[in-house]
Each structure stands twice: as C-alpha cells, then as structure tokens.
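Order emerges. One example.
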Amino acid sequence: MLLVLRCPGCGKSKVAREGVKRTVCAHCGKSIETARAVVVLATPDEAEARLAAGSANAQRAGRPEEFRAAFAGQAAPRAPPSDAQAAAVRAAASARGDEARLEAAARAFAAASGAFAPEAFAPVLAALGIAGPARDRLERLAASGVLYEPRPGRFALA
C-alpha cells in the first residue's frame, strides 16, 4: 500500500510506502514520521498515488491548470515572461561573450527566483540567443561553483 503524505514542514505532498517509519521531504528536507503525518490518500496503485501527490502540489502552487493539461495531453498555455526571466535577460545584456552572459543571467535568475528548474531558465537562454539544452548549461555552472543542485533537477545560487 502506498500513502500520499503531507509534509508538516512545507505542506507539499509526497508518496511513501506503508510500514516505513520515516521518510524525508524532497522539497524541504524535513524528516517526516509517517505515523504522525497527515495521510491524503492510501492506495495500492502507484500511478494513482503519484497523480494525487502531483495534483495536490500543483493545487498548492496555484498551477492546477498546467497539471491537468499535462495529463490531458495538451500543452499548457504559455505564461508571459516572469519578472525573474526579464531580470536575467537585463543582467546579461552588458556581459561580453556567451559564458559571461550565461553566468550573469543565471546569477540574476537564481537571485530573483530561488531554486529553479532548467525549463524555467530555457526562455532566458532563448532570449539571449544561447543555444543548447538549459540543463547542460546549468550543470556546467554548478560544476564551476556558481550554482548548486539542492535537489535533483533544481538549481540555486551557490
């Protein structure tokens, strides 16, 4: 049986196996005692558990339409550039060379948005005319010590 638990630290949902005494929240790192945690759903179906956790997290983040659209097979409507993306493009405008512009943009974007996914940074690269997958570029910045990965697939200012 799988349990969808609500983290007492950040409120996000996560999936854990029944019988596990403790688990760690992937979002905030808090240790969760499963016996004391709020159980949102108990199900034997892994797909149902993941769907419930994802839906709860999307609802909490105020983005349920994007989550529903992803499961309906449609593309979610594109959002206008965020303030963080605009700030990153402005910060990189005066830098010379792709690597310097990339670093300036990443620093400004991380400062404005906190931990972020490569998909959120991709429009910044496109606006700057820097080719290549955003994830590869961000991993290089992490290797050089500009950024770090607080959890897999998320980057933050080091």
Summary: The helical segments are 46-61, 64-72, 83-92, 98-113, 118-128, 134-143. The mean pLDDT is 87. The beta strands are 2-6, 13-17, 22-24, 31-33, 38-43, 147-151, 154-157.
